[in-house]
Amino acid sequence: MKQRKDRLAAIILLLEQEYPNASCALIYRTPFQLLVATILSAQCTDERVNKVTAPLFKQYPTASDMAKLPTEEIAQMIYTTGLYNHKANSVSGLSNILMERYDGEVPQTIEELVALPGVGRKTANVVLGNAFQIPGLAVDTHVIRLMNLLGLVQSKDAVKIEKVLMDLVPQQQWTQFSHLVISHGRRICIARRPQCSQCVLANLCPSSL
Fold first, then answer.
1. Domain-wise residue ranges, the chain
2. Average pLDDT score over residue span 63-69
3. CATH top-level class of 31-131
4. CA–CA separation, 165 and 91 (whole Å)
5. How far apart are the C-alpha atoms of 187 and 178, rounded to whole Å?
């Protein structure tokens, strides 16, 4: 455990130097908007989500506004993000629950968040860490892939990986850790064409080519 902690601390330091401005790429103004945007980002690029949410949030910026919108209309507005019917049902459902139970506000505990339609632990942690500054370790496909390549975990299960990382990463770094790993996964450690020759982690990575 100590060896893994020390190696991960070195990895984090290198990533911090490489990506000093790493942050959430989704554009939002409120916790509700980040919640919706994160749901829409499933199997979709953040760039595409931002294009879709710009007009969506301009017309329907709050849970109250969204709850009044027919699910079919939400689906039409988010069509290009993919899985639009499922996502529309989630957005409509959570908007109505937020109005019924939370006066339109987004709750600030992971237990309450994951009880909302379409909200898993990754989405909940994104919202907690970025909208509320409550440490949250968001484990997405980049984090899963890189943690396995670095030999820090041997699992594809996001929840198991999150629990392992919670023991390895200092709590105050949880939110930023996800941003750093995601940035590296998008720019250098690309799934189909990893740029190992340009990777600052090459000497610490057993999978380096």
1. 2-21+137-204, 31-131
2. 98
3. mainly alpha
4. 29
5. 14
| Nearest residue to 110 via CA among 87, 141, 135 | 135
Residues known to be catalytic: 122, 140
Please determine whether the domains at 2-21+137-204 and 31-131 fall in the same fold group of CATH: no
Is residue 44 left, alpha or beta, with left meaning phi > 0 and alpha meaning psi from -120 to 50? beta
Are 138 and 159 contacting, i.e. CB atoms less than 8 angstroms apart?
A: no
User: Tokens representing 25?
Assistant: 């790429």
Written as one letter, the residue type at 122 is K
Query: What is the band of 208 on the pLDDT scale with cuts at 50, 70, 90?
Result: confident
- DSSP E strands in 22-74: the ranges are none
- What tokens were used for 49? 């989500």
Domain 2-21+137-204 CATH assignment equals 1.10.1670.10: yes
In this prediction the pTM is: 0.95
Instruction: Give which of 187, 174, 72, 91 is closest to 133, Cα–Cα.
Output: 174
pLDDT over threshold 70, residue 209? no
pLDDT, position 1:
80
